[in-house]
Predict the 3D structure of the following.
Amino acid sequence: MNLLGTLRVLDRFIGISPSTGIGSYPEFNGFTHGFSLSSGAGDEFQEAVDAMWRAAASCSDGMVTQGTPSADPATSLGRLPDPACVNTAKAPHNWEGFFWTLGLMELKAGNTQRGMTALENAKRSSDYASWPFRAEFQTDLDDAPRLAKLLAAGDSAAEKRMLFGSARSCVACHQR
C-alpha cells in the first residue's frame, strides 16, 4: 500500500485525514503532504502538486497560486510570520527548497512554464547566494524544458532529480 492508501485507511477507521491535517496548518502540512507524495503518479501526484500550491497560497495570503505563480519574498510569501513560510535558523533555505521542489513537481506534471517560474522564485531569496545547492539547482533550472519532457515521460534518470527520497531531500532546506 502506498502512502496515500495508508492515509485513506487512517481516515476510514480513525477519522484522521490528510485534508483535515492540511486544513489545520496548510503552510506546513501542505508542504509536507505534497513533498511526501511528490514521487507518486496520477491522482496521488496531482494531490501533491495541489497541496504545495495550497501551502504557497496560505503563506502568501492568497497572492501566490497556480494562476499567479511568481513570488517575491518581500511582497508575497513571507507576508505571514509563520516559520513554514520563510527562511529560519532551523531551515535557512526553506524558501529555496520549497520552490525547487514545487518547480520540479510542475515540470513533472508537464507544466513547463509554471515549473520554470516556481524555480525562478527560489533565486529571489536574499539567502540564495549562500545556498549550498545553488549549482545543482541551477542545472535543473537551465535544463528545465528538457527535464520537463523527461519527467513527464517517466524517465528514471530524470526522476532522480526529484528531491523527495534523494540525498538532498531534507538538506535542501535545512543545510547551512
